[in-house]
Amino acid sequence: MYLPSIVLFAIMDNDRFLIYSSALVIMGLSNAVIPILPELSATGQIYGINSSSLVYSSFFLGALSTMLPFGILSDRTDNLKLVSLGLLLSFISGLCMIFTDSFIIFVSARFIEGAACGAFFPAAYSRLARYTKRARYMGEFSFLINAGLAAGVAVTGYLVHSNIKNGIILFSILTFLTIIFAIYRSIVSSNTIATITSQKKIIEREHPSSHIFTSKDTRGIWIISFILAGSSGVLISLYPEYGTDTLSKTELGISISLLYVSTMISSLVTSYVNIGYAKLIKIGIMIATIGILVTINSSMAGFFIIGIGSGLMLVGLPIAIASMNIEKGMAMGIYNTCIYAGLALMPLIAGVLANSLEVKTIFFITAILFGLTIFLNRD
């Protein structure tokens, strides 16, 4: 599965290598916690029965509270300094989880991990947006994000038998090695001042910040991004209950993993296809909507189809932002904030609705809501 990841690193400049490798290790470390949440949260049972949820959700709180501030900052400083900061915060988080069993520190470490993503993503997207081959590079970037997420879960699950923290240890080491490369890159690079100057000149030519929030084009992107991430979150959070009588744990795991795999494949293939971002988003919405409906009767086929549509959109949406005459860092910060807000809020709303509606009905409503976003996509 990860052979394409190795190929992507074979020939590229130092900046892209840093961004790509950072995506793998940061996302890998963030998901290395998932298979061992019950064990990490065991010492927190005195704080309530939802200690696992607290450890899990603190990551999103960290990301949500830092995405926009770091996005604004990335327009005013060297993007790769913030990428390096994301690596450092991620490494600190890993060390905290490795060397302690304190529940409070685990929660704090997950918050720091979320802040690492807050520093990393807007800066990374903003940097890639300035390449002439941004469509290709953003597709590769999306592929590596999902590869990192999948690797974090898979590697931890494989290594957990000897030590439950082995996955965290491994990805912390890889993060440290990436930090060393970031230091090397900062020493040998002579483009930092030119980069900052170039960014400032671009900002001066771009529309004022308020335009990012008030424009019809950008509002549509924010809503689509929120519902895209939120819909996947709804399905992943409710499907274990929905499939209790029809799916084994293994089948459920395979079904959800197909979402990651198909997203990886779709985003990578899309990056090499010459299709406008508006068409990518529109086709992605239609495919993902069909996928949500299919999950009602077939989990594996449904999740796979959703992943295909999501991959198209995860390439199309950043390209749409990169093509606009707006501050890229702030815009990418808002985009990623909407992604994480959708992941955090829509499953919560769906969970409340599940007390009064059948899960099948919630899936159908989610599909309709997702399908309606096609009218927000502007050519």
UniProtKB/TrEMBL annotation:
Main location: membrane
Stretches assigned to the Major facilitator superfamily (MFS) profile domain: 8-379
Family annotation (Gene3D superfamilies): MFS general substrate transporter like domains
Keyword Nucleus applies: no
Keywords: Cell membrane, Membrane, Transmembrane, Transmembrane helix
Locations listed in the record: Cell membrane
Pfam family, one: MFS_1
Domain of life, source organism: Archaea
Protein name, per record: Major facilitator superfamily multidrug transporter
